[in-house]
Amino acid sequence: MTVEFAEDLNEEQLAAATAGNGPALILAAAGTGKTRTLVYRVAYLVSKGIPADRILLLTFTNRAAQEMLERASQLLGGLGGGMPWSGTFHHVANRMLRRYAARVGFSSGFTILDQDDARSLMSACIKEKGLKAKEFPKREVLLHVHSQAQNRSISLRDAIDQHFDGHDVDVHLVLQVLQRYGERKYELRSMDFDDLLVNCVKLLREHADVREQYVAQFEHVLVDEYQDTNEIQSNMVDLLVGPAGNLFVVGDDFQSIYAWRGADTRHILTFPDRYPSTRIYKLETNYRSVPEVLDLANVTVACSQQPDLFRKVMRPTRTPHHRPVIARVRDGSHQALFVVEAIRASMREGYNADDIVVLYRAHFHAMELQVELTRNRIPHVVTSGTRFFEQAHIKDVLCFLRILQTQDDTLAFQRFMTLLPGVGPATAMRLWNKLGGHFDAADSDQRAVLGRGLPKGAQSRWQALEPVMETYYAEALDDNGGRVVALFVEHFYDQYLFDTYENAQSRLEDLEELGLQFEHFESVAHCLQDVALLTNLDAEVDSVADAGKVRLSTVHQAKGLEWPVVIVIWATEGMFPSGRSLQESADGEAEERRLFYVAATRAQDELLLCVPEYRRMRDGGGMYCQASRFIEELPREAAQVRRIGYL
User: Is 434 a catalytic residue?
Assistant: First the structure.
């Protein structure tokens, strides 16, 4: 099939997608078709005779990689020559480590710890030291510090000093706990998400033959959202690029908003310095927003004081509309009333509820609004909370599958045992030690030993489980994860759900969906690997249940999305920009400015910025608010200013 590149792409996209060999930096402003350009880049390379399996495509979500490959395959009527290596950094690192884990001291069957596993393990490390939670940083804080050390390639001690600077914390004890966490992971033959990247980079750096193999294999390396790379991800990319320097990175330095998790804009800003022959392509033709929204966003960029930015000016393709609105309201309660009326007005103009989003800097900003939306019976959904695979009932089922698959998964065993009546963490560990630190579910003798060691109240429930285990091995159900889930629920977990949760029926429906999804995997083992590799960035796609609802979201969670109507609340100093961000980081104002730019460029048609003049405080008092600096710097012609009367 012939692809009409010149007809399908504008001049900017065409130049980038059909660039020759060597390093290329594609600076894609918001709404300018970066995904389209990447898709056509893959198609172009294959059309020029590059075998698909000689292409590496790195993204920040598995869904993004899959979407790009599907679109490229549709363009070409099939990619041919195999499939590109594609997926998140963690996914690709896992794939390499499964083959060469022994080179970094692991077996190929190492376990991947998800966030809940990591929290449990960190709690155990704290407990080993005899420390109490009230007297010591929480496990989530310690995991964050550990992650910062890994992702920024700095020492644990430096990460501790940076995080606890000015706080009364025993840094030596913190260091001991973090070091013990690392030791315990190794003892358990497991890696957390950060370890996947760290060990992959270690593999490539310390074993030249492995690196040379992958460098030879990947003739072209493509990276999406390059502005969001952290130190370890940037190193991984650099190690995989061959002498020809065929590195094609796409990003926008002005949409780098994840510094809090290690993203560093220096990687995109210094790209031409690290790759001197770099050709730079700019995508500035915007297909998303009306001209008036782009005018406001361009001002936000122009007012930046960062000297090393890649300056871009978005050009509109859509017809003029009307200017964004700055609504000055009395306080948070008044703002909530106003937003409710603005939503109703938009719907009277023909927009649907799910065409509208309310954005804010932090979730607590929307508390009053949520109450008012509920009071006015306006259907809404908050983009937050627990992801599907992080929910307790889903993780319980996955733990059972992990026990069926491996004999030495301490964390899965401990979690699963506590589902039985009368079994707590201490009892679970006593049973684990009695079994010699491993449990083979296929061994009927071991199952009997475990059953006899359980409290009397748990033995009947355990007996209900044994037939499921026997069936799994007798019928070799490793290739039928859906049936395993159904058997587990039928014989054991449905009773647990109804004894434990008031919304048991809803959770059962989740498990039915889980069973259906598992049927798409060739084995339970592959399924567990893919589930463990899901990242926080892989937010769940909108379900049918969310259709017809106004969405409430932080700006961070709205990245990459767009809506016809965007309402930004609390555009005041201390709220947006965040006072804490300004105080804690030298780059705080620049990051907040990028967040404001991202918020504005989510809007296709309507942009409404709310500026309360007074903020009530928790102690019953209040304070007068100053409009956000990003509002104050706008020229008069950039927006309509409306002082909203009491509603």
Answer: no
Q: Which of 12, 13, 32, 34 is catalytic?
A: 34
Contact 459, 417 (CB under 8 A): no
Count CB neighbours of 358 within 10 A: 28
**If 0-12 CB within 10 Å is exposed, 13-18 middle and 19+ buried, where does residue 262 land?**
buried
Report the alpha-carbon distance of residue 572 to residue 623 in Å, rounded: 12
Whether residue 387 has pLDDT greater than 80: no
- Whether 540 shows a pLDDT value over 80: the answer reads no
Per the structure block, which two tokens stand in for 94? Answer: 């896992």
Candidates 301, 262, 296, 299; CA nearest to 282 is 301
Gyration radius from the chain CA atoms:
27
Instruction: Give me the sign of the Cα torsion angle 68, 212, 151, 282.
Output: negative
Closest by alpha carbon to 255, among 265, 270, 245?
265
Is 146 in contact with 158 (CB distance < 8 Å)? no
Q: Which residues contact 617 (CB under 8 A, 6 or more apart)?
A: 623
Catalytic residue among 18, 35, 495, 500: 35
φ, ψ dihedrals at 572, nearest 5°: -130, 160
Please compute the mean of the pLDDT values over residues 81-108 and round it to a whole number: 90
Of 255, 265, 300, 554, the catalytic one is 255
Cα 287 versus chain centre, distance: 26
Chain length of the chain: 647
- Per cent of the chain over pLDDT 90 is 56
Range name among 60-64, 139-143, 239-243 with the lowest pLDDT average: 60-64
SS3 content of the chain, % helix, strand, coil (to 5): 55, 15, 30
Residues 6+ apart with CB under 8 A from 109: 189, 406
Judge contact between 259 and 587, C-beta under 8 A. yes
Active site residue 37: no
Quote the CA–CA distance of 50 and 46 in Å, as a whole number: 5
What span, in angstroms and rounded, lies between the C-alpha atoms of 404 and 143? Answer: 28
| β pairing state of 247-251 and 356-360 | unpaired
Residue 174 CA, distance from chain mean position:
27
Annotation marks residue 225 as catalytic: yes
Q: How far apart are CA 75 and CA 39, in angstroms?
A: 9
Residues 6+ away with beta carbon under 8 Å from 305? 590
Average pLDDT over residues 160-173: 82
Q: Say how many C-beta atoms besides its own lie within 10 A of residue 396's C-beta.
A: 20
Q: Cα–Cα distance between 138 and 360 in angstroms, integer?
A: 27
567-603 tens-digit pLDDT: 999 999 999 998 888 887 778 898 999 999 999 999 9
224 annotated active-site: yes
DSSP state of 24: E
Q: Is 117 a catalytic residue?
A: no
3-state secondary structure of 503: coil
Q: What CA–CA distance (Å, rounded) separates 219 from 235? A: 18
In this structure, the number of other CB atoms found within 10 A of the CB of residue 12 comes to 20
- Out of 117, 192, 224, 252, the active site residue is 224
Strands (E) across 17-59 are located at 24-28, 55-59
Active site residue 618: no
Half-sphere exposure of 246 (CA within 13 A, CB side): 21
> To which residue do tokens 């954005």 refer?
359
Strands 356-360 and 563-568, by their bridges, are parallel
